[in-house]
């Protein structure tokens, strides 16, 4: 079995091989968008059988990932990983993933990310779930918003006092607005990925990136500058309003957009397809039980390719020291690091000191963005704490000021 890079000339064969691995066909998304249109063929891989036929695929997109502390770093977005049914359980997937990780590291990447089709596949390759997402359904007759209880100018702003306006546009009328607002949002949201311009231009993705027919509620601030949007459609069933995503740069815009879709006439319920677990909307509702949570699942999976570079890249919110003994069985590596944080910056160096925590690189990935507390994985039996205070110290150190979240689909 050989692994070789792909070129632009391989595009059609690559897509057909990848789709065959998933039993899919070349169906265009409504509106003409093709989700694979933004593939970067210079970052693709073929697994090739002895007769020269491609039997497996893997690729990567070039993204920026927002880390805690509003730090933007490059991250490889792994995608299109598949093996033909005729060649599964023969080591093809492992060969592809090992080759890709080695190549990414050699090219200077220290982080890679992916969305997992199945949760049991990618941990063995060193990936760990780092964000979560949910679906939230609100019956229209229970959709009243509570009056904010905080007082004062600053408190009112934080709880959603709005001096802006909402305008309804068609998706085809506001592409530039969507792109600009999303870019403002993702720069401040840990776990968020960039959406390069070519994705919007090619309609490569799910709505509202794709040109599928949608209405878009655009929120503008008091100066008329767009600072939020909600992409939505009615139907399936006809009385349901489904929100693809709500993007807002502050809570005032988010509250105004939530109120707008919840107040829509001729519907019986509003479905928010993708919201973070700690979304404040449930607390904004007068009836706390009105928001029904479903499809609570993993979102972005993270892989650390260079532990010291990754740990020193993100921002930190607590001073302290921690010795981490990190095992990377897939790449056959084990290393021990002294992590020292002072004034929001970290230093990470090799050490022979006794460890505070021993953990798999996939578990470190789950801690990395701050979405999972180290003590949770200690209690789950995945991380070993070497003394009673280790988990508490690690919880304080890895704490972030904002929960990570990623809703970009790739």
From TrEMBL:
One of its GO terms (biological process) is aminoglycoside antibiotic catabolic process. CDD domains: NAT_SF. Keywords: Acyltransferase, Transferase. GO terms for molecular function: aminoglycoside N-acetyltransferase activity. PROSITE patterns: GNAT (PS51186). Acetyl-CoA binds at residues 81-83, 89-94, 117-118. Residues 1-151 form the N-acetyltransferase domain. NCBIfam families: PRK01346.1-4. Belongs to the acetyltransferase Eis family. Homohexamer; trimer of dimers. PANTHER family: N-ACETYLTRANSFERASE EIS. This is Acetyltransferase. It comes from Streptomyces alboflavus. The lineage of its organism: Bacteria, Bacillati, Actinomycetota, Actinomycetes, Kitasatosporales.
